[in-house]
Amino acid sequence: MTAQPKILTILLLVLLVIAVLEVAILAYLATSIGAVAALEPRLKTLESTTGDVLTALRAMTSTLEKYGADVAELSKRLEEVEKRLVAPPLEFRLGGWWPWPYHGNPYAPGGVGVLYWFGFETFAYLIPANQTFIPRLAESWKVDGNKLTVKLRVTAWVDGNPVRADDVVTAIYVAQAMWEWPYEIKSATKVDDRTVVIEFEEPPGPGLLVSILTSPFVSFAPNHIYGKWLDRAKEVATLGREIWLARLKGLEVPKEKIDRYNELRAKLRDEITALNLLEKYGYVPSNGLYTVESVAYDKMVMRLNTLHWQAPTASAKRVIVYRWTSNEQIWALYLAGELDTSHPATPKDVADQILRLGPKMKLNTVTDLCETPVIVFNFRNPLFRDISLRKALIHSLNRATVRDITFWFMPVPIYAHGVLPSFERFWLDEATLAQLTRWEYNPSEAERILRAAGYTKGPDGIWRTPDGKPVKFTLIAYAPYSDWVIAAKEIANQWKAFGFDVDVKLIPEGMYGPTLEAGEFDAAIEFGSAWWGVGHPWAGYDRLWGGGWIATVTGIRALDLNMVEYDTPWGKFKPFELVRALMAEVDPVKQKDLVRKLAYITNKQVIYIPIVEKGLQIFYSEARWTGWPAHDDPLWSLAPGGIERVYVVLLGGGVLKPVTG
Questions:
Q1: Which structural domains are found in the chain, ordered by start?
Q2: pTM for the whole thing?
Q3: Phi/psi of residue 140, nearest 5 degrees
């Protein structure tokens, strides 16, 4: 047989096979169309590969049309699948911060960053605008005298362990041992797996009760991980409380006891802070709505805790957090359409641009329940111990100008009394306000005060102290906070024009807290009176005069300036004792009496200079998520001190829903 007949024979065989296959394919396709519905569950699993799936399905449709098959039913099915496939992913995007390298340890330096509210449950949230609670980890609670009984929800840690009373007990004692707080708690006892009794030294006032109910510290130490330190934590906490109580009573504490406490606490602290949870376990033991899935320097991905009590109703499967290194970076992410929400301090012109370029971007402004920027002084520097200088500093500063370039939509506090202007008329009556000094811009009065105190102005235009030294100091600000930076520069320029030799120093990311704690500053831009989470002046005064941040870093606490008896129209009072009394006081009338005394002392002593009550500028986009609360919804008042709680409420309850078309 020649080559040509062989080729013809092969071609005929190939054509015959093709014809047979074509008939078989047509028969198969004809019987398959009715079974498409059965394939739909499998199609759902392919949603992560949207492009390839749609391309393949469209190709199938074209093939069927080519052979004249009836594809009406299949086309309808494909349209339904396509809608699911092209819907936006169930992820929620915002800006935030976390320490790097990331360890996931709430007790280690830097804490857990943005995971703080997303990953750890409080007993409850308090809505300051209407003073109502939203139960969280606590299903219910009751106060009976000096005892708080909490019934826990049925929920779990991300590793599958149920949340039990043992976890809360462990967390309380570890907190006391690590932070010397909350020493007001006398004991924590497990009644059963879901019931814990917290006993206080005395019946808790509203400030203390709210701080315990609304802080996630009760979820920081799961017993199955931190339980090995529980006995030692109790020992350290007991010693610390005994020392604390003795000092409150003015008693001298034996040196041997203090040394033993310091030794035990240091060893325990070193062990606990050295624990790198992410490295040791491969996860962060969270009991909140979300937990860490992956973390890099510039982006953290949090996934839904499927064992959380709100997991069935949660509307976002993931939360994507872009690192907040500066307000400018957040603005850029807004303009790029990368964020669903965030709250950077934003000048008016920039805010207008963000809203103009993002037509689905909205802006809501609410009080942040705090003052910032404010100027705080390091009282370890003798320069600032002179009240005449502090009075001149506030009178020589046009704070309205600083307000206009920072929180341009909020009021300037005239009195510098520690009560937020938004709540001034509730806490302080006209008679009290009339007794306070109005610290308004008045350079002439500032000069009069200085000259009366013996200050002189040198030939270089710089003011000299009574002993002839130039009034020279440095004002520090945190570099990533653009509002603090521009405020510091404006303040320094004004004071230079008045005759003070002031420099500005910007502190880089991650170093501001350590710098203040080390006392390595003269004056600093900071948050002042802050009522975060509580909505009560006790929190602000504890921060300024009690055991809080400002009292600590300024030296007020270490120098016992809060234990000085200051004159008021109602007698002599020590601010620290007034703060303690306010924390425990239940009677609203008596609370106001304590507040007016603290307001009077704060006003007259000018221990800090408030510039403006901080307002939160909450930008949120309706491009990917819908269901945002109305601007006057009380829920927004939960934002101060932890805006992530607002998102937890909205996402956990399924209030926010993805835009599907």
A1: 3-86 (no CATH), 121-281 (3.90.76.10), 290-361+621-658 (3.40.190.10), 373-611 (3.10.105.10)
A2: 0.72
A3: -160, 165
